[in-house]
Amino acid sequence: MEFECRRCHRSVKINAQRFEVFERMHYVCFHYEFEHGEFDVDEECTARGCPSASLAGGRDQVIETARSLALEAATGAAWTNAELHEYLDAFAAWLADSHGYYLNRRTVPPGNGWKVVNDALKAATVYE
Ligand SMILES: [Zn+2]
Ligand SMILES: [Zn+2]
């Protein structure tokens, strides 16, 4: 069965099972049609999981977080994962379970990977 998006007229494949949920559109088309509001299409809107979030940057925030954690670590912060191997292990484990983390907070995972990495950097100090 072939589905055609009523907004962009391209074929809908990935979300074909949710074709009706998204009012016979791609998820992305649905978002821009009904959720994105007056925001520029290239700008992140206030809806969680906005597809434009990946364009929003966030690298500077990650750099700032990494530097601030390095300072904390250098001054003997009482982290659960104070050893480098423990920290990196926790970093990887947190990322592997990040969907669960956001769902537990009843929120959609950020569309911007930088935000996820930023959260992971902080969480890895205490994540077990
Ligand atoms: Zn579409
Ligand atoms: Zn949006």
Q: Classify the beta-strand content into a percent band.
A: under 5%
Radius of gyration: 19 Å
Q: Tell me roughly what share of residues is in helical segments.
A: 40-55%
Bound ligands, named by name, code or SMILES: zinc ion
Q: What class, by secondary structure content?
A: mainly alpha
Q: What's the number of extended β-strand segments? A: 0
Low-pLDDT runs of 5+ residues are none
Task: Note the main sheet.
Answer: none
Q: Name the average pLDDT.
A: 93
The general outline is elongated
Order of helices and strands: HHHHH
The tally of domains stands at 2
Oligomer: single chain
- N- to C-terminal separation? 46 Å
Number of helices: 5
Brief summary of the model shown:
The chain is built from five helices and no strands. Helix 2 (59-74) packs parallel to helix 5 (113-123).
Could you give the topology of this structure?
Elements: H1 27-35, H2 59-74, H3 84-96, H4 98-104, H5 113-123
Helix pairs in contact: 2-5, 3-5
Residues 5, 7-8, 10, 25-26, 29 line the site of one zinc ion.
Can you tell me about this structure?
The chain contains five helices and no strands. It is mainly α and 128 residues long. The chain has two domains: 16-53, no CATH class; 55-123, no CATH class. α2 (59-74) packs parallel to α5 and α3 (84-96) packs across α5. Bound molecules: zinc ion (2 copies).
